[in-house]
Specification:
The complex is a heterodimer of chains A (about 550) and B (about 100).
Chain A (H helix, E strand, L loop, with lengths): L5 H23 L4 H10 L2 E3 L4 E6 L4 E3 H14 L3 E4 L4 E4 L7 H10 L16 E2 L13 H12 L14 E4 L13 E7 L5 E7 L11 E8 L3 H15 L10 H8 L1 H15 L8 H10 L12 H10 L1 H10 E3 L5 E6 L10 E3 H14 L3 E4 L5 E7 L3 H10 L14 E2 L14 H10 L3 H7 L4 E4 L13 E8 L2 E8 L11 E2 L4 E2 H18 L7 H8 L2 H8 L2 H4 L1
Parallel strand pairs in A: 6-7, 7-8, 16-17, 17-18
Antiparallel strand pairs in A: 1-2, 2-5, 3-14, 4-5, 4-13, 8-9, 9-10, 11-12, 12-15, 14-15, 18-19, 19-20, 19-21
Helix pairs in contact in A: 1-2, 1-4, 3-12, 5-9, 6-8, 7-8, 10-11, 14-16, 16-18
Chain B lengths: L9 E7 L5 E4 L4 E2 L10 H17 L3 E12 L2 E4 L2 H8 L5 H5 L1
Antiparallel strand pairs in B: 1-2, 1-4, 2-3, 4-5
Classes of the chains: A alpha+beta (about 550), B alpha+beta (about 100).
The structure holds iron/sulfur cluster.
Chain lengths: ~550, ~100
């Protein structure tokens, strides 16, 4: 597994000392808020509605049990006993006091964690497939490259003041679970003619005010050229990205305004100049980093299929959980498990300190101490033995973490919204909670099948509503919360941006509206195997609009 | 500061520097309890409240002071806008609120 190198350790410790001093000077009055604010943001400290918020990076969503225990300890000691996992594979604490933050950062540094580059116009935490190194459909581990990118981009002097923030995501599997086309740069690892590794690169994706899918800039960049190519893209962006208008500053606008061909031409010219230079990625270095991600010592042995089948027959809830929350693994006898952070009526992505401790213990007992965070706001045990599933389920159930709803209608993504976020227009979490309660019946959920609801409390789209099969965007209409619904969005290899279905709904109406959409799909699908998204793509929005607003609306 | 708020009854709010907690300008000093907040009426009182806010910023008690509209409900006041209601009462999300 990834280890910090000495450089990281030294740097992070220096940064903690520096920030401790800055906090002290702020409280002593030697720094004004104007001077202090950019410094706190550089360390992941935001001021939200009720308190400060600390955003901690979880590089490519990989956590050890030791780190998870530390997060539990911090939640208990300095916060209100819980933390919130976000769609960026980060963790947010909602209630730390400013005076405690240096101590928290010190504790994090002890387990090789920090909050650097979780804010500001720099290259943010590089995200990756949460099933990296585990899933059966993977051809290369994306974490190796996410880590290479992390090292290259951390405190990169040229790219610390970009026109705007910059997000990179990597997948190495045929199913894109990292939503790469919703990022400024998306990387898909490919194999070339001789099975050599390379990258298909997308650029200019992003959600927010102007949602766009990334466009392919190159279909194959050789492994050793990866950083040179990325650097070329960043240079072109840094040169031309608009600094005059915050809303037009992301690379997606540049790509959109100038066209992918023109951007490609410039990037290629830049690339031709720097290729093979200092950024060349030597084989030894790549292998050194790959060793951080060596597979755990898998055991070979017979699978006791009968035992599993029997346990499933005895306990229907367990059977549903196995069906929904386990994933095909590359190692025979093993599987990956999703730990749903979406209990019925709960806050999507929230975990209590005790639950974090339980997950750490379960990971130690059954999963080589490894944990992942998904952008869907769930946790994952990437490598567990199928034979252990009954015990794992029992242990999770005890911690109230055994909801078997992965990918179902109650596996809702929701941003913090107006309950916490200073930028919000409307609440997200209570809508998620009410939807979850409305669809609580697991049999009904299974009948509905795969469908994703994603909710954002403002146009910044942290809840990824544009790529939800059903997207919900909170807006402020004359002081009232109002919700706009989009349909047909998808984040994966068949990505699309959802379309607004019609006029919005009040907070009271929106849950009924979603139910109407789901019922309409059930009524119109060809058979239960046709998913919501497939049916929507076949049918278009008309029948859904009619169901919501009546057929009369079509004439209008 | 954002554009000047004009409302019949207002209260000056901010976040406390040390822990970010929501606070209000009281009759005398700062309070975390809206019921103890000083009700501000008219431009002159508003200017006085804002002046107190600026001073408290300089004294490192709080950050980002601003006026909000409040309305009379029952015997007390409550914020007119939802954002401020939530700032006043905490998140509306169940387990988080009870933890708060
Ligand atoms: S989408 Fe808006 S409301 Fe939600 S967390 Fe992001 S900025 Fe806040």
């Amino acid at each position: 597994m990834y280890r910090y190198d000495e450089f990281d350790a030294e740097f992070v410790n220096d940064r903690v000392a520096q920030f401790s001093d800055q906090v002290r000077r702020r409280i002593a009055g030697e720094l004004t808020e104007e001077q202090f604010k950019p410094l706190r943001l550089m360390n992941g400290v935001y001021l939200q509605l009720h308190a400060y918020m600390l955003r901690i990076a979880i590089p490519y969503g990989t956590l050890s049990s030791t780190q998870m225990r530390k997060l539990a300890h911090i939640a208990r000691t300095y916060d209100k006993g819980y933390g919130h996992f976000t769609t960026r594979q980060n963790l947010q604490f909602n209630w730390p006091s400013l005076e405690d933050i240096p101590a928290i950062l010190q504790e994090l540094a002890e387990v090789e964690m920090h909050a650097i580059q979780t804010s500001g116009n720099c290259i943010r935490n590089t995200t990756a497939d949460h099933l990296a190194g585990a899933s059966a459909d993977e051809h290369a581990d994306p974490r190796v490259y996410a880590e290479i990118i992390r090292q290259w981009s951390s405190l990169h002097p040229e790219f610390s003041f970009l026109p705007r923030k910059f997000k990179v995501a990597v997948t190495g599997a045929s199913t894109d679970r990292a939503a790469i086309r919703a990022h400024d740069i998306g990387l898909e690892i490919r194999r070339g003619e001789n099975r050599q590794i390379g990258f298909r690169i997308f650029v200019g994706g992003g959600l927010g005010r102007t949602p766009m899918l990334g466009k392919e800039i190159r279909d194959f960049v050789e492994e050793r050229d990866l950083l040179a190519y990325l650097e070329a893209i960043l240079r072109v962006y840094n040169r031309w990205g608009r600094r005059d208008n915050k809303y037009k500053a992301r690379i997606k606008i540049l790509v959109h305004e100038r066209g992918i061909e023109s951007i490609r031409e410039e990037v290629e010219a830049e690339f031709a100049e720097i290729r093979g230079g200092a950024l060349d990625l030597p084989q030894e270095e790549r292998q050194r980093i790959a060793r951080y991600f060596a597979p755990p010592p898998f055991e070979e042995g017979p699978i006791d299929a009968a035992r599993l089948t029997e346990a499933m027959a005895k306990d229907p809830a367990f059977a549903v959980w196995v069906e929904r929350n386990t994933h095909a693994h590359k190692q025979p006898g093993y599987t990956s498990v999703t730990i749903s952070l979406k209990p019925i009526g709960g806050v999507p992505g929230d975990a209590k300190a005790d639950q974090m401790d339980s997950v750490a213990d379960i990971a130690d007992r059954f999963a080589f101490g490894e944990i992942r965070v998904s952008h869907e706001q769930n946790l994952i045990l990437p490598h567990v033995k199928k034979n252990d599933l009954p015990e794992i389920y029992a242990a999770l159930a005890e911690a109230k973490l055994a909801t078997g709803n992965r990918g179902l209608v109650t596996d809702i993504i929701a941003c913090p919204g107006l309950d916490y976020c200073a930028l919000a227009n409307a609440r997200s979490i209570p809508i998620a909670q009410r939807l979850s309660e409305r669809f609580a019946d697991i049999e009904r959920q299974r009948e509905i099948g795969d469908v994703s609801i994603k909710i954002s409390g403002c146009i910044n789209a942290c809840g990824h509503h544009h790529v939800g099969h059903i997207g919900i965007l909170g807006v402020d209409r004359k002081g009232e919360e109002f919700y706009q619904i989009t349909l047909g969005g998808a984040p994966g290899e068949d990505a699309s941006i959802g379309e607004i279905v019609g006029k919005g709904f009040s907070a009271d109406e929106v849950v009924d509206a979603v139910e109407t959409l789901v019922d309409t799909y059930i009524r119109l699908r060809t058979d239960p195997k046709e998913s919501f998204l497939t049916a929507y793509r076949r049918l278009g929005e008309a029948p859904f609009r009619d169901a919501l607003y009546g057929e009369a609306s079509r004439a209008a | 500061m954002a554009k000047k708020l004009v409302a019949e009854q207002m209260v000056l709010t901010a976040n406390r520097l040390a822990d970010g907690r929501v606070i209000y300008l009281g009759a005398d000093g700062w309070t975390i309890d809206l019921d103890e907040a000083r009700i501000v009426r008219g431009a002159e009182e508003a200017e006085g409240a804002e002046e107190a806010g600026r001073k408290a910023v300089a004294d490192r008690i709080l950050v980002e002071p601003y006026l909000i509209e409040v309305v009379t409900v029952g015997g007390g006041v409550e914020p007119a806008r939802l954002r401020e209601k939530i700032r006043c009462a905490g998140p509306t999300t169940g387990h988080s609120r009870s933890a708060a």
